[in-house]
Amino acid sequence: MAENEQRPAYTYADAGVSIAAGNALVKAIAPLVRSTRRPGADAEIGGFGGFFDLKAAGYRDPLLVAANDGVGTKLKLAIESGRHDTVGIDLVAMCANDLIVQGAEPLLFLDYFATGKLESGVAKQVVAGIAEGCRQAGCALIGGETAEMPGMYAPGDYDLAGFCVGAVERGEQLTGERVEPGMMLLGLASSGAHSNGYSLVRRLAADRGWRLDRPALFDPERLLIEVFLAPTRIYIRSLLPAVRAGRVAALAHITGGGLLENIPRVLPRGLRAMVNADAWPQPRLMAFLQAQGNIAPEEMARTFNCGVGMVLVVAEDDVTSLSADLAAAGETVLTIGRIEPGVRGCTVSGNAGTWSARGGWRAEHDG
Length: 367
Fold this sequence. Notes:
By secondary structure, the protein is an alpha+beta fold. The protein contains eleven helices and 13 strands.
């Protein structure tokens, strides 16, 4: 017998990759993708790239703004609990909310789903969440990538990355240059921990032996896992009218680094955010985490959003009117502080103490 006749005939499936499963997934999610259609995009998938027509979307002289992000270790809670339907909303939210702070409208979204072995049921749930997030943000899901990579991930594990592109008319972008002393800080309530601090949440859960499938001690109507997996709030539809009307001087998306690190990112030199931590009640989830972990207030302010998912810098004489408009759009609006002269940064103070950050990640050179 010839030497080559003794060798087995290998296929891609033998290596753990199923092309058929990938094709079946694309077919299954096509209706979900179509549900995100909007002016400028037909939200069809299957090509090598997705088109977007800026003119059809109504833009005359736009600047494009792009952002990408993931969901972090919140995914582990979704995987371990078998609840995959909301992390896609988180994925869109983390990207789209970063665009609105530049004054940009999210227009298109692409996702990357990577796993060791493709389980179509799980992947479809994840994409359903992504499609829901896109509908909430008003952007079209125009493409993505499903990567089946045996040996790269533990059984059942997967990872997500999202990529969002938006646009703003030239001259209307938010850069922080409009911020002035005396302006006020409005906070929009978060829907939970959003997508930050989950490595600490998971560590506490393991050390304290929490039963995530039991009702939360602080909210008996909901399971603890439901509280932890509550999707990140998407603020686009409520904020976009105010941004386009020029009523917002700056926006800060409160993600990793909390209030202390994120607000300074949108301030010009010579101005400081003064936040009154007693101006809003601490959410029960945050109080629970702080008590269970004996977490210092400053650590809370750097790790979690503490109940505030987005911060607006607005003129003092527009606070009442704008707060009413945002409340009518479904937001819980909090007046949390003001802008004062000083070294660029943020000071959070209250009955529990005072904590400061100087400049944030890109503003450390103020004299």
